[in-house]
Amino acid sequence: MSAILIGSFLGFVVWFLARYLVGGLYTVDQNERAVKTSFGRADRVPDMTTLSDPISESLNEDEKLRYIYPQVRVIPPGGPYFKWPWEKVYKVSVATQTLNMAFDPDDYSANQGGQILEAVTKDQLNTGLTGQIRYRISERNLYAYLFGVKRPISHVIGYFVSILRERIANFEAPKALITDPEASIVTGISINDLRKNLRQINEGMDRECASSAARYGIVLDATLITGIDPPPEVESALAAINTAHNQVSSDISLAQASADQNIEQSKRAVEIKTLNAQAQVEPLRQMAKQLGDLRKAGDDALESYVRNKRLELYSRAQNVILEAK
C-alpha cells in the first residue's frame, strides 16, 4: 500500500513539474510583444497612465477623461521567460498589417463582400470607394488593445469608416482650384474634386485618425484610397462632362500658348527696333560730343576740323562744283 502511495506521490510530483514548471516557460518572437496577468490583473507600471505618454496628445480634453488606460509592463522579444500557474501571458504581433478599407470584421458579406465601401458626396451621389489601410498594434498602449475593448479591430474600422464618410460628405475642393477658370465648367461636381485631391484626402484621414492609438491601441499608419467610382447611372454623364472639360482646357491652353508666343515675339521685335535706333543715334551723339570738344578748344580748331573734313570729301568725290566768286 505504501509503495502505491509513494508511486502516486512521485507521479504527481513529475506531473506537477512537467505541467507547471517546464510548461511555465515561454518565449516572445521578434515581431511580438507580451503582457502578463496575475489572477486576471495585468502587470502595471505604478502611477503611469496613457495621459503620461505623448500618445495622448492627439486626444481632446473630453476624450482624455474617457480614454485613460493604465500603462502595463511590456515583455520584449526573447526568453525563455517563466510564469506561475496563476499567471497568463497575452502575446500580440506588432508587425504592420494591410486591410481592405471595405472589410467588415463583424459581417464578411457587408460592403459587397468587403470590396467596395459606399459613401455619399455633398451633391448626394452614392459613390464606391476602394483602397487599403495599414495598421499596427501600439506597444505603448497594449492595455487598450487587450483589455480596453472586446473587439478593437471592429472599433477601429468603424471609427475609420465614420470619419471617411463624414469627410467625403463635406469635402470641397481648395479655393485655388475653384477660382481656376479652367475648372469652372466642373464646379459643384464633387466626384471630380475628390478624384483630383486623393492625396489631400489620404493625408487628412491620417491626421484625423491619429487618436486611434490612444483610443484603441491600434496605430493607423497610412490611408490609401485608390479609387472613387460614381453610380452607373451618372457614369456616362460624368464622362461627357469630363470630356468637355478636357476639350475646353485644351483650347484654353492652346490659346494661352499662342498668346504667350505672340507676346514674346512682340518683345523681341521691340528689343530689335530699340537696338537699331540706338545704333543710329550713337554716331550722332559721338559727333556732337566731338564737335563740342572742338568748340571748347577754340574757333581755329573747329575751322581746321571743317577744312580737313572738306579735303577728305574732295579726295573721295569724282566731280567737284565750286561756286564762282
Tell me what you see in this structure.
This protein is an alpha+beta fold and 325 residues long. Helix content is 52%, strand content 20%. Strands 8, 9, 10 and 11 form a four-stranded antiparallel β-sheet that branches. Strands 3-2-7 form a three-stranded antiparallel β-sheet, covered by helices on one side. A hairpin with a 5-residue loop joins β9 and β10. α10 crosses α11. The termini are far apart.
Mean pLDDT: 80
Order of helices and strands: HEEEEHEEEEHEEHHHHHHEHH
Helix content: 40-55%
The oligomeric state is single chain
Which ranges are low-confidence, i.e. pLDDT below 50, for 5 or more consecutive residues? 181-188
Secondary structure layout plus pairing:
Blueprint: H1 2-22, E1 25-28, E2 32-38, E3 41-42, E4 44-49, H2 61-66, E5 70-72, E6 78-82, E7 87-93, E8 97-100, H3 110-114, E9 117-120, E10 126-137, H4 142-148, H5 152-170, H6 175-178, H7 190-196, H8 198-208, H9 212-216, E11 218-229, H10 232-297, H11 299-316
Antiparallel strand pairs: 1-6, 2-3, 2-7, 4-5, 8-10, 9-10, 10-11
Helix pairs in contact: 10-11
Task: Describe, in short, the structure shown.
With 325 residues, this protein is of the alpha+beta class.
Which key features would you list for this structure?
4-stranded antiparallel beta sheet; 52% helix; 325 residues; 11 strands; alpha+beta; 3-stranded antiparallel beta sheet; single chain
